[in-house]
């Protein structure tokens, strides 16, 4: 699956209701082409739930997601997963080398490409400290929440050929200075892609084409940054 200017995404009455009765309900949305969409709304409003469904990681309770008129479930896992780069809210760091963690989605990446991604994600000094072959995770060196988030961003920089990009609070664990530095590297990565960013950081909105406001699992508003 190659997302292009003509590609269409359609969410129809999309719902995911957890056992608690919470989740998202009856989301309707149609998009075409290279759109950059921000998902905003208070904690618990359903941003991560929506992203997990778009990533194909969670099955809707009802309703459907269609890409080019085809139901998401019917696209083979491999075909879809190879087009999507999903950065979840919590970064999964496993026990292994720094290189293995960075190249998790792109195991054939060259050291040169990995080092470039490390630089864009602001991890150069950590790399100098532990090296690509250093162990991190449970049986190696523990890294901070902000460093883990930058590992997630480095993974996204390495997977730049994937043209559906789903970022769940990609800069939430960074201090504002680091955040703005790395944001300048992230913005070019968003071009010519379908992008969804869930965020509480409102400075992202002016870089997005569309803003979707969620409230208690429902879409409360859709519009451009200026309109809302
Ligand atoms: P935040 O800004 O805190 O990340 P969010 O907008 O991403 O919040 P979600 O994580 O999508 O919100 O949660 C939406 C609702 O669904 C919340 O009420 C949450 O408690 C509930 N929820 C999320 N994940 C689960 C789960 N795995 N099991 C049960 N309920 C869940
Ligand atoms: Mg969330």
From TrEMBL:
The GO cellular component terms are:
plasma membrane
In the record, biological process GO terms are: cysteine transport
Segments forming domain ABC transporter: 9-228
Q: Which UniProt keywords apply?
A: ATP-binding, Membrane, Nucleotide-binding, Transmembrane, Transmembrane helix
User: Where, subcellularly, is it found?
Assistant: Cell membrane
Q: Which GO terms describe its molecular function?
A: ABC-type transporter activity; ATP binding; ATP hydrolysis activity; ATPase-coupled lipid transmembrane transporter activity
* Taxonomic superkingdom: Bacteria
What this protein is called in its record is Thiol reductant ABC exporter subunit CydD
Parent-protein start and end of this portion:
325 to 552 of 595
């Amino acid at each position: 699956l190659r997302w292009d200017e003509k590609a269409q995404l359609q969410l129809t009455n999309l719902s995911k209701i957890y056992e608690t009765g919470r989740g998202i309900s009856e989301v309707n949305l149609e998009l075409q082409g290279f759109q950059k969409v921000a998902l905003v709304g208070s904690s618990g409003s359903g941003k991560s739930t929506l992203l997990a469904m778009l990533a194909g990681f969670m099955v809707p309770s009802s309703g459907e997601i269609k890409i080019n008129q085809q139901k998401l479930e019917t696209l083979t896992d491999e075909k879809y997963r190879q087009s999507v780069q999903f950065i979840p809210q919590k970064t999964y760091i496993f026990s292994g080398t720094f290189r293995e963690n960075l190249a998790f989605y792109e195991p054939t990446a060259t050291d040169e490409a990995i080092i470039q991604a490390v630089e864009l994600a602001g991890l150069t000094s950590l790399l100098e400290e532990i090296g690509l072959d250093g162990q991190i995770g449970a049986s190696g060196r523990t890294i901070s929440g902000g460093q883990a988030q930058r590992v997630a961003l480095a993974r996204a920089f390495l997977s730049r050929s994937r043209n559906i990009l789903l970022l769940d609070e990609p800069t939430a664990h960074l201090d504002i200075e680091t955040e703005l530095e790395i944001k300048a590297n992230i913005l070019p990565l968003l071009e010519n892609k379908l992008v969804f960013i869930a965020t509480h950081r409102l400075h992202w909105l002016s870089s997005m084409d569309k803003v979707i406001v969620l409230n208690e699992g429902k879409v409360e508003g859709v519009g451009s940054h200026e309109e809302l």
